[in-house]
């Protein structure tokens, strides 16, 4: 049973705004797949099936001051943090004005100086240790910002994840670690990835709270994050949240999950699609009607079309800038 | 001026920078508290600047790397100490994938102004994992700088330059030079350029290029050779990466006879690249094949004394190679 | 009975010296092996030193609290074994070897052997390994056929200076000709067979050959040594000397390889003439060199090159090399030869600076003392053909440059004035030769126009400094 939306303590407007973010995340990602298939971008890796939990997570932070070190499935929380659909498009199209990397990194490596979203690489989970530095900076400067970093359950087995959580526990850093658990590390299922029942059990092992949440349950996720963020801001130290989500798509544009997932499994995925569950809940609990949702969808589509057109018209990086910003003086 | 060891000079450089800029922080294994590092480089800093700015980390080098990168992105100038250069290997992912690429991959939106300190070098009975010259592992990673001082005076000026540099800098410190070298070091605020090699002795018969312990061997050998009628130009590489090609090529052209000395393995060392650069840029000024003098291609420096001596490039070996080249 | 020495032990990584804080035994004490004898202190550790021998403590060899290097003898022990005195060092129990790895010479022997093996494998030495056992004396024998493998530097310098390497004596290993040998070789001695050969011993050669280095000798002196023959019709045939041969080679290369094109403009340099006439006496007095017209032309060319980098270029195998520096070659004729020394970074010079630099290079050329540095790196040539009265000429480009400018004689002519009358003006022809692979007529024309305008921009008030 999912928690009722009113238990979140959020206003109706805030709940509808949350839905807009979830739907925007879905629709924008669908557009990125389209662009990949027609060859306008070369790659996409998506967070479809993660969006409800991701939006709940992001809404628990103060985006003006809190830092976010995302991983590659976190387009939707980056939108909540303030990035725009056009920003995302600029990145996928590899444009010079791409705020994530100015066309230097593959798509989906999100970052934005303007929005305190720190750039990450593709060698998974390095953002976990980097996040300790960001969080330690808050302690040094006696500031009350909280740092959020995420990774997948596959990447959570990297050594640096344990190193980071250990240090955060020692220093009681204002740092929230998140494992978005969609059950697959590309093609490798949970039973080949880790032996413990819950990854959130690793939290207490490093001296911090560990909570597993159902990422399809907006309110459960939001309330869990709200609590740990408040605690961290008060100086009570870090927390680990394992967010159970669904991976609706293949790992990436270069992968075909029908090779390792059965037809049945793939058909069943729809039952666990957080978006559909969230929509049903919104209708059942009287927040939105199907018609209103269609209107929102139409508005978002327009916004995405405009973002795509505008981004496509922006200049590519110049070949002669290949050596720009290698060092500080160049 | 004050007589100072190489180690004291590094300590003073760090101390001055921490006093000058409150954003400078230093950490690593045994770095904080009353111990102040296994070699004592950071002794007293925790007491002077507080346990927040000079602190111990758990035994986790990957964390030391990532912590420094994170601090860099939010405006601090982190100094991460790897207890031995051999131990930075678990952090190579952070150094290469994050630190060296942060500026490039965001075109300067995010940067990582970090100094990673790495005590390196053999001749201390350190065996395979306390003797290595690991700079070649990080060499050729654009975005990252690698520097090493070969004298106390340079040690102070260069560590200060590294801390102030807006790029990630790996600062290699030669363990055997820590207490071996003593000289007058200015007590005022000065820096040594982060990207320049240094001609430490002039001569017109042969050119010797090196850094660290072997550079000091070369300087002594050059005096012996001088009595035999040959003058050696001796160049301290100082900026291991990126290399100061201009100074190195100029020195190579000056005599046309080049000896490259390193205490690393012969193959795949920094000297291999210097050799390629000189071959490309100075062929028609060369009067002999470019020579390399280095350790053998064994995996690192073994512990037992005869093995360690076999590996080490001694002053005698340097002198012999220099003399042969001078007579060529 | 024999005497043993205990040294200050190795006390850890990076420790190079230590002192004794306390003696735990006294002189004359009888001690057992492994008994602690002293407490040693370094800046890192405090540790007990155990004895490696049983016997009598004979003598303390160092003072308390005095830093000594690791490996310094600290105590003498008399043992009861019947062996002879051993004064060579031995390590105490539990202590490691001295930190100075260079102490025991025998250890380096193997390595030296390895280095020797390695060195013998190197290609440059393979040539001469069979003569490796030659004595030092035999090495100073003049070079033979065996030593005709030259380093890149030797070949380049020999080509530049027109040196026949068969005539150079090598001072290197096994008589190899070194770079210094060719740099210091007296070019003028070529063709005189052995008369000019230097017969000094191997070790002394570098300095000795410097001492015998001379400038070009007077023609008269030289003639006697030149092989002269006569043809049946009585024509005199003189073998060209090295420099003449080098000039010939270069001219043929320039004329055959470079497709030349020519342009000429005339420029009114009346103001420069006035300026020079006004300042030359004072200039000579102040600066010690004569103020000629030539520096003004070099300056005007440099200014134009800044705007037209294509003129400061070279053709290199299908690539155009744009030179970063502007290095103007200036032609200097002596009685016998033509030299083209280079004013490096010409754009750094004022008119006064150029006067002095040109004067310096001309003097060196006349004295035969130009170094290889002085003649290298030119990027365009300015030729003062006017100095011998020419009013029009077609220069041959100085390979591998892209252009040469001939500065002809200044002549007085009547020119029309704006109000329809005539005036007397100082007019000069500027003749430009270009490498048509790199430069087209239009570019050359624009360049010349700028040179002309630069010249006409001088006034009789212009600054020479």
Give a structural overview.
The complex is a heterotrimer of chains A (330), B (328) and C (465). Chain A is built from eleven helices and seven strands. Chain A is of the alpha/beta class and 330 residues long. Chain A has one domain (5-309): Thiamin diphosphate (ThDP)-binding fold, Pyr/PP domains (Rossmann fold), CATH 3.40.50.970. In chain A, strands 1-2-3-7-6 form a five-stranded parallel β-sheet, sandwiched between helices. Chain B is α/β, with parallel strands linked by helices and 328 residues long. Chain B has two domains: 2-185, Thiamin diphosphate (ThDP)-binding fold, Pyr/PP domains (Rossmann fold), CATH 3.40.50; 198-327, Rossmann fold, CATH 3.40.50. In chain B, 38% of the residues lie in helices and 20% in strands. Chain B contains 13 helices and 14 strands. Chain B has helices spanning 6-20, 45-49, 61-73, 92-99, 102-106, 135-138, 152-164, 177-180, 213-227, 245-255, 270-282, 305-311, 315-327, and strands at 2-5, 24-28, 54-56, 77-81, 114-120, 145-147, 169-174, 182-185, 198-201, 206-210, 232-236, 239-241, 258-265, 291-295. Chain B has a seven-stranded mixed β-sheet with strand order 3-2-4-5-7-6-12, with helices on both faces. In chain B, strands 9-11-10-13-14 form a five-stranded mixed β-sheet, sandwiched between helices. Chain B has a two-stranded antiparallel sheet with strand order 1-8. In chain B, strand 6 (145-147), helix 7 and strand 7 form a beta-alpha-beta unit. In chain C, the strands form six sheets. A six-stranded mixed β-sheet of chain C has the order 11-20-19-18-14-17, with helices on one face. A four-stranded antiparallel β-sheet of chain C has the order 1-8-6-3, with no helix packed on it. In chain C, strands 5-4-2-7 form a four-stranded antiparallel β-sheet, with no helix packed on it. In chain C, helix 10 (294-307) crosses helix 11 and helix 10 (294-307) crosses helix 12. Classes of the chains: A alpha/beta (330), B alpha/beta (328), C alpha+beta (465). Chains in contact: A-B, B-C. At the A-B interface, helix 5 and helix 6 of A face helix 3, helix 4 and helix 5 of B. Chain C: Its EC number is 2.3.1.-. Chain C: GO terms for molecular function: acetyltransferase activity; lipoic acid binding. Chain C: Residues 134-145, 186-202 have a biased composition (Polar residues). Chain C: Residues 100-133 have a biased composition (Basic and acidic residues). Chain C: Residues 3-78 form the Lipoyl-binding domain.
